[in-house]
Structure formats: structure tokens, C-alpha cells
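Dear colleague,

Thank you for sharing your sequence with our group. We've completed the structure prediction you requested, and as agreed, I am returning the results in plain text so they can be pasted directly into your records. Please verify that the sequence below matches your submission; if there's any discrepancy, let me know and we will rerun it promptly.
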Amino acid sequence: MKAGIIAAGQGDRLIQGGILVPKPLVTIGREPLIARVIRAANHVGVTSIACIVNDLNPAVAEYLRSTSWPVPLELVVKATASSMESLFSLAPLLSNGPFLLFTVDAVFEFGVLRRFLTKARRRGGDGVLAVTRFVDDEKPLWVKLDKGQRIVALGDGARPGRYITAGFYYFRPEIFSLIEAARARRLSALRQFLGLLLENRLSLYGIPVSKTVDVDTREDIEKANKYLVEVGEG
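Please find the predicted C-alpha cells below.
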């Protein structure tokens, strides 16, 4: 099983808070965010990782290329218009079977990921989203589940609800069959693509996980570091 990491965003809210280090290199728990995600993926036994980073921040690609990693890393270096297009840029590297997908700014306990993956493999379907009740995000993606944990609504249609997305996912490559449809609709975000999957009746499920912290602002860095100390991974 492979993994994909979306790490091509600009980190505008971090920049506004005076953090000039590219988001993937922001230190959380004594290591860059992107290093922690790679380590998490290796922890659950992925065979390789496809990662997209922005060519406007060459320091990120240089860091990844100059560091020795415990799992093979396939690097895509380009600017994309959205998180959705970042995922699509990884499609040629992730189309051979089910894969894990991470956003680089999600901070979670490694044990949480391992338990999620075990359940996601058993669940089946076209995609499984990790969802959490911990809401501390300016723009969360709300998720509504039925009694069988199938996703029945996303976004505004899921409010008010119990869950939001937690920043990591398990997908089958069938989701890439809707790339052209997404572009034809001029969708501009990963969350919109997830909505398109649901609209086209692909089977999406949600698996509740414990707290995760999304690092978007200066304050989030402190929250994430405090959280890792609390769970013994700081």
C-alpha cells in the first residue's frame, strides 16, 4: 500500500501570523510537520510515499531530497491551484491500489492512524475518511454519517453535526475516474471533490477517531505541541 501527502499549500494564515518557514517545515514535536507525516506513514507499513510540494518554496524539496527516509519517497514539485489539483497530480503515482492520503498539517497520534487503517481496510467502499468530534478550525468540513457509518452529507448539508474531517483518508484509485468531471465543473478544493464523489454515489464512509490538530495558524503550533506532550509523543 502506498501513501500520498499533499504539502503544496502556501500556508497563508501562518505567514499572516509571522511564521515565515514554509508550512511543511514548521516544527511540531521537535521535527518538521512533513517529517512527522512521513514517519506516521512508515509506522503503518506503507511501501512508498508520493508527496507533492510547492516549487515556490524550494527549501521543502531540498529538505526532502537531502534527508534519508525509512521508506521510498516519490516527489512531485509544482505549484497547483488547489488541494484538489495537488491530489490529481499524485494520481499517476497512486493508481495501482488502495492508498492512504494525508494533508501535511494534520497532527494526530500514531496509534490513532494504525487503528483507523485497520478499520478502513475492513470497511471497504471507495473511500474512508477519518472524522473527529474535536472542532477547532476556522473552516472545518462537516461530515454526517448514517448508522452504518456511511457518509450521507458533507459541508453545509452536514451541519449541525457531530464530526469534521481529521486530515487523513483511505481511498481506492476508482476516485480518480472523476478527475475530468471535477475539472469540467471547475471545482477548486479537495472538499469539493469529496462532495462530487458523494454526488456520483461512490461509497464513502467515516471512521471516528480521537482529537487531531490542524496547523493553520501561529496559535495552532502551540496547540499541536501541547497535544503531543499530552499523548506522550512530544
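Summary note from our side: Residues 110-123 form the longest helix (14 residues).

Kind regards,
the structure core
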